[in-house]
Request: fold
Amino acid sequence: MTLPRFSLSKISFAVATLLWLTRLAAAQDFKKQVIYQIVTDRFFNGDTSNDNPSQSSGLFDSTMTNWQAYWGGDLAGIQAKMSYLKGMGVTAIWISPTVDNENLNMATGSPISAPYHGYDARDFMKVEEHFGDTSNSWSAFDNLVSAAHSNNIKVIVDWANNHSNYNGGGEFGALYNNGVFMASDSNDPNGYFHHNPNISNYNDRYQLQYYTLLSLEDLNQENATIDSYLKTAVHQFQSHGADGFRLDAIKHVTWGWEYSFANSVFTQSPSFLYGEWYNNNSGDPMYHDAYKFANKSGINELDFGINQAVRDVFASNNNFSELDGTITTENSNFTWSNDFVTFFDSHDESRLLTLNNNNNRLHEAMAFLLTGRGIPVILYGDEQYLHNDTNGGGDPYCRVWMSSYNTSTTAYQLISKLAALRQSNDALGYGGWQQRWINNDVYIYERKFFGDVVLVAINKNDTTSYAISGLFTSLPAGSYADYLGGLLGGSGLTVTSGSGGNNPANNFTLPAHTVAVWQSVGTPAAPEVGSIGPTLGQPGMKVTIAGKGFGSATGQVLVGTTGATVNSWSDSSVTFTVPSMTNGVYQAEVKNSSGTASNTIQFTVLTGQLIPVTFTVDNATPTNMGDYIFLTGSTVELGNWGTTFDTAIGPMLDPNYPNWFLNASLPAGATVQFKFIKIAANGAVTWENGSNHQYTVPSSGTGFVTVNWQY
Ligand code: NOJ
Ligand code: NOJ
Reply:
């Protein structure tokens, strides 16, 4: 029987719409998630037929003695362990870069060096044969995604926009588009790569973005072919069901371009993005750039400040004040601090148990992360206490083989309990954070979202108990059992009535190495908004607001004072379409069906879909050390004529001083006005003279505009 054509396409359209709606409901709000990071090659071998594929043979070591070889873990292996993951309560997995990696040995001779970690791409359009199957098909990825989704687990793919592969061996950076050769380090007639030396100064903005990271062939994202290649490739992963992406090395990819990458992802379908800005600690000279980027790009960041502080406090026994201070500083600088992705172990550093082989400390660090501010990541194997301490246990020895899947470890139980609490008590995902009691060994902090409260007490000392008195909390008067049921030694708490959200707790003793968790869930009097995602978008984009108490009947979403079309509505999640309205930074809110308004949350309306544009200003006004040239202009993408480090676009880069350039992302097809300004080290602003420059952004591709500084 032949079906008429139109009905086939109707059916597939309906299926696609259904899939899209399912994803829409699930994606974007990641604040309640617990992410489990998997080094795909090291987790479980679910398919031995891909261990030693013919196109890349000889890179597999079945003895698992060469730490730079493939050991056999794959996507089918992750799928095979789905019930283990589900039982632990994790709600998202972050897997290694899944794109096709180079096929040849990167070392000369033996021992071989293989891209088992996935950071040496050769073809972003295909799936790596060691992880999927020997024909580089999507089957294993699709199967993993559907198994994960049917267990309510999201799939986050690690994604490296910065580079292809190692330029000093193997395939020398060669890049392919679905099997068709594009360029390599020594054969690049179209300028797909940058060809600069390795980065030597990690405090130089030009080197960071345009030089080569660790001999990895550096992609030129301003090239229209590369721009479209990377965006097409990521869309392909989205259409195969990826829910989010961990963006590798975002400090080394052209910063302005990344705004258009994020926008392109969000325009395609709902997603969550977080990037590795190593190292966004507050003491780093690039710290200000790091939080400006996180605040404006739509890309959240891995929290290296918390990473360092947790390791210092729990492994090296530093005082809790370090952790407390780190959170205070970061919360004041990062607009979306609950979207920080927090971690203490990763595939790039010694595991906590290598630094201090003390399971109590590991449990305490885990409990902190899972109840702390941000979206927590647990590195695979931590729940099994795995670590290999060779040479200090760093890369590659932190990438241990997952040799046990015991579901009764204390760590596994702990993760499962606290992951459940993240779902049931919105204080963890959406709440503020307040220190309530602190000394060198004890940290008591509170998370609070309207009437939802979680109070956590940690004593990390191995032998000393502490008497706690003078503790106040927002928990209502009453008796509270330890939510962990004594798993880490905690017991109950009694709270009496006080005033101003400060209710006195009874005095109690917090025994050595104890974590106690007390919590209470309130009943909303009005809609309570905890999250918006993405945090910026152009008219027509679908955006999700999450929180609680929205009611079951459809109400209203307002962006500023403009009503938006509501696409879906539930008590905890609403999606709307960004209305056609003037670009700018607004407050959005939800009104329930009886017209009661929520709190507001910031949302930026873009002028249009973003494409990358490179601006150059020649012969700019002279500058002294510490002065910078910035770009500013007539739309929100250009800072709406802002004149500060945070509101203007830049700093610009001056490898050809006194000419300055910068790549930014601008609304396709829009006509914009702009000027260049000098912001001196002391903040004094000097404008270019004359009338504003005007530029019409191309409707697609990439743009370039060069002007002379107007004296
Ligand atoms: C950071 C990743 O986490 C690391 O594992 C990788 O080698 C580099 N970026 C280069 O991609
Ligand atoms: C104020 C500046 O003084 C001027 O030079 C600039 O053109 C305008 N802002 C933007 O219209």
Residues 117, 119, 160, 216, 248-249, 276, 347-348 surround 1-deoxynojirimycin (ligand 1) (CB under 6 Å). The two ends are 76 Å apart (CA to CA). Confidence is low (pLDDT under 50) at residues 1-27. Residues 550 and 571 are 4 Å apart (CA to CA).
